Protein backbone atom coordinates (compact mmCIF):
# COMPACT_ATOMS: atom_id res chain seq x y z
CA UNK A 1 0.00 0.00 0.00
CA UNK A 2 1.20 3.48 -0.79
CA UNK A 3 1.31 5.67 2.32
CA UNK A 4 -1.60 7.99 3.09
CA UNK A 5 -0.67 11.44 4.39
CA UNK A 6 -2.71 13.62 6.71
CA UNK A 7 -1.72 16.85 8.47
CA UNK A 8 -0.07 15.05 11.37
CA UNK A 9 0.17 11.41 10.33
CA UNK A 10 1.49 8.94 7.81
CA UNK A 11 -0.72 5.88 7.41
CA UNK A 12 1.43 3.06 6.05
CA UNK A 13 2.19 -0.61 6.22
CA UNK A 14 4.05 -2.03 9.19
CA UNK A 15 7.83 -2.41 9.22
CA UNK A 16 10.02 -4.81 11.16
CA UNK A 17 11.55 -1.76 12.86
CA UNK A 18 8.17 -0.89 14.44
CA UNK A 19 8.60 -3.45 17.23
CA UNK A 20 9.55 -1.01 20.03
CA UNK A 21 6.65 1.32 19.31
CA UNK A 22 4.25 -1.59 18.80
CA UNK A 23 5.23 -2.89 22.22
CA UNK A 24 4.65 0.58 23.70
CA UNK A 25 0.91 0.40 23.05
CA UNK A 26 0.29 -3.37 23.06
CA UNK A 27 1.99 -4.28 26.33
CA UNK A 28 -1.00 -2.64 28.05
CA UNK A 29 -3.87 -2.35 25.54
CA UNK A 30 -6.13 0.63 26.24
CA UNK A 31 -9.40 -1.24 25.69
CA UNK A 32 -10.40 -4.67 26.99
CA UNK A 33 -11.30 -5.83 23.48
CA UNK A 34 -7.59 -5.76 22.62
CA UNK A 35 -6.42 -7.89 25.55
CA UNK A 36 -5.95 -10.86 23.23
CA UNK A 37 -3.37 -8.77 21.33
CA UNK A 38 -1.33 -8.03 24.47
CA UNK A 39 2.43 -8.38 24.02
CA UNK A 40 4.42 -9.61 27.01
CA UNK A 41 7.90 -8.63 25.88
CA UNK A 42 9.94 -7.03 23.13
CA UNK A 43 10.67 -10.40 21.52
CA UNK A 44 6.92 -10.94 21.05
CA UNK A 45 6.66 -7.41 19.63
CA UNK A 46 9.40 -8.15 17.09
CA UNK A 47 7.62 -11.32 15.98
CA UNK A 48 4.31 -9.44 15.72
CA UNK A 49 5.86 -6.58 13.73
CA UNK A 50 7.34 -9.08 11.26
CA UNK A 51 3.96 -10.83 10.98
CA UNK A 52 2.25 -7.51 10.18
CA UNK A 53 4.66 -6.44 7.43
CA UNK A 54 2.60 -8.12 4.70
CA UNK A 55 -0.83 -7.70 6.32
CA UNK A 56 -3.19 -6.01 3.88
CA UNK A 57 -5.79 -4.87 6.41
CA UNK A 58 -3.58 -3.43 9.16
CA UNK A 59 -2.62 0.22 8.72
CA UNK A 60 0.22 1.56 10.86
CA UNK A 61 -0.20 5.10 12.19
CA UNK A 62 3.04 7.06 12.21
CA UNK A 63 3.21 10.42 13.96
CA UNK A 64 4.88 12.73 11.42
CA UNK A 65 6.52 15.06 13.95
CA UNK A 66 8.11 12.36 16.11
CA UNK A 67 8.45 9.61 13.50
CA UNK A 68 6.99 7.14 16.00
CA UNK A 69 4.46 4.43 15.34
CA UNK A 70 1.58 5.45 17.61
CA UNK A 71 -1.16 2.99 16.75
CA UNK A 72 -3.09 1.27 14.03
CA UNK A 73 -6.34 1.07 12.15
CA UNK A 74 -7.22 -2.49 11.24
CA UNK A 75 -9.98 -4.86 10.36
CA UNK A 76 -10.98 -7.34 7.76
CA UNK A 77 -12.70 -7.34 4.42
CA UNK A 78 -15.91 -9.33 4.13
CA UNK A 79 -17.30 -10.43 0.80
CA UNK A 80 -18.75 -8.97 -1.18
CA UNK A 81 -17.95 -5.37 -0.15
CA UNK A 82 -17.95 -4.71 3.62
CA UNK A 83 -15.12 -3.94 6.00
CA UNK A 84 -15.04 -4.36 9.77
CA UNK A 85 -12.87 -1.58 11.21
CA UNK A 86 -11.16 -0.95 14.55
CA UNK A 87 -8.40 1.27 15.88
CA UNK A 88 -6.07 1.69 18.78
CA UNK A 89 -3.71 4.47 19.75
CA UNK A 90 -0.84 4.60 22.20
CA UNK A 91 -2.38 6.20 25.32
CA UNK A 92 0.43 8.78 25.25
CA UNK A 93 -1.17 10.18 22.07
CA UNK A 94 -4.85 9.97 23.05
CA UNK A 95 -7.23 12.93 23.16
CA UNK A 96 -5.49 14.77 20.32
CA UNK A 97 -7.83 13.80 17.48
CA UNK A 98 -5.22 11.49 15.97
CA UNK A 99 -7.47 8.40 15.92
CA UNK A 100 -10.09 10.45 14.05
CA UNK A 101 -7.49 11.71 11.58
CA UNK A 102 -6.17 8.19 10.95
CA UNK A 103 -9.58 6.50 10.75
CA UNK A 104 -10.88 9.16 8.36
CA UNK A 105 -7.90 8.62 6.02
CA UNK A 106 -8.32 4.84 6.10
CA UNK A 107 -12.08 5.05 5.54
CA UNK A 108 -11.49 7.33 2.53
CA UNK A 109 -8.97 4.78 1.21
CA UNK A 110 -11.33 1.85 1.75
CA UNK A 111 -14.23 3.53 -0.03
CA UNK A 112 -12.28 5.15 -2.87
CA UNK A 113 -9.46 2.68 -3.58
CA UNK A 114 -10.59 -0.68 -2.23
CA UNK A 115 -14.19 -0.42 -3.44
CA UNK A 116 -15.78 -1.01 -0.06
CA UNK A 117 -19.52 -0.21 0.13
CA UNK A 118 -20.10 -0.51 3.91
CA UNK A 119 -17.85 -0.09 6.94
CA UNK A 120 -18.86 -1.13 10.42
CA UNK A 121 -17.35 -1.22 13.89
CA UNK A 122 -18.14 -3.05 17.12
CA UNK A 123 -17.56 -0.94 20.23
CA UNK A 124 -18.00 -2.07 23.81
CA UNK A 125 -20.63 -0.18 25.80
CA UNK A 126 -18.00 1.13 28.25
CA UNK A 127 -15.65 2.43 25.51
CA UNK A 128 -16.99 5.97 25.29
CA UNK A 129 -14.02 7.42 23.35
CA UNK A 130 -14.53 4.94 20.50
CA UNK A 131 -18.28 5.53 20.52
CA UNK A 132 -17.65 9.27 20.17
CA UNK A 133 -15.12 8.60 17.41
CA UNK A 134 -17.66 6.52 15.46
CA UNK A 135 -20.20 9.34 15.74
CA UNK A 136 -17.63 11.94 14.73
CA UNK A 137 -16.81 9.84 11.66
CA UNK A 138 -20.48 9.98 10.67
CA UNK A 139 -21.18 6.37 11.59
CA UNK A 140 -24.64 5.62 12.94
CA UNK A 141 -25.39 3.18 15.74
CA UNK A 142 -27.24 0.22 14.27
CA UNK A 143 -27.72 -1.97 17.27
CA UNK A 144 -26.76 -3.22 20.71
CA UNK A 145 -25.68 -6.79 21.31
CA UNK A 146 -26.34 -7.65 24.96
CA UNK A 147 -23.65 -9.66 26.74
CA UNK A 148 -22.12 -10.19 23.32
CA UNK A 149 -18.54 -11.12 24.14
CA UNK A 150 -16.13 -11.72 26.99
CA UNK A 151 -12.55 -10.48 27.07
CA UNK A 152 -11.90 -11.10 30.76
CA UNK A 153 -12.89 -13.44 33.56
CA UNK A 154 -13.66 -12.72 37.19
CA UNK A 155 -11.67 -14.11 40.13
CA UNK A 156 -13.51 -17.42 39.87
CA UNK A 157 -12.67 -17.75 36.17
CA UNK A 158 -16.22 -16.98 35.01
CA UNK A 159 -16.40 -14.91 31.82
CA UNK A 160 -17.42 -11.28 32.21
CA UNK A 161 -19.66 -10.51 29.24
CA UNK A 162 -19.97 -7.00 27.87
CA UNK A 163 -22.50 -5.32 25.64
CA UNK A 164 -21.29 -4.27 22.20
CA UNK A 165 -22.67 -1.51 20.02
CA UNK A 166 -22.51 -1.73 16.25
CA UNK A 167 -21.84 1.42 14.24
CA UNK A 168 -21.75 1.63 10.44
CA UNK A 169 -21.52 3.95 7.47
CA UNK A 170 -22.23 3.41 3.79
CA UNK A 171 -20.10 4.84 1.02
CA UNK A 172 -23.04 6.95 -0.21
CA UNK A 173 -23.37 8.43 3.31
CA UNK A 174 -19.62 9.09 3.54
CA UNK A 175 -19.57 10.94 0.22
CA UNK A 176 -22.12 13.43 1.57
CA UNK A 177 -20.07 14.33 4.63
CA UNK A 178 -17.68 17.32 4.77
CA UNK A 179 -14.01 16.21 4.77
From TrEMBL:
Broad enzyme group: transferase
UniProt-listed InterPro entries: Acyl_CoA_acyltransferase (IPR016181), GNAT_dom (IPR000182), N-acetyltransferase (IPR051531)
UniProt superkingdom: Bacteria
Keyword Transferase: yes
PROSITE patterns, alphabetized: GNAT
GO MF annotation terms: transferase activity
UniProt keyword annotations, A-Z: Transferase
Signal peptide: none
Ranges where the N-acetyltransferase domain occurs: 9-161
Pfam families in alphabetical order: Acetyltransf_3
EC number: 2.-.-.-
PANTHER family, sorted: GNAT FAMILY, PUTATIVE (AFU_ORTHOLOGUE AFUA_3G00765)-RELATED-RELATED, N-ACETYLTRANSFERASE DOMAIN-CONTAINING PROTEIN
Record's protein name: GNAT family protein
Amino acid sequence: MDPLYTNRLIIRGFRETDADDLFAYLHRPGASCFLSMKLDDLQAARAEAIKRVNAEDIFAIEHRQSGRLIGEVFGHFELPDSFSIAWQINTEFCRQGLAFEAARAVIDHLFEVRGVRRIYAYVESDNLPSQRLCSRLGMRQEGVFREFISFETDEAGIPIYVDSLQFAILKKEWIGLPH
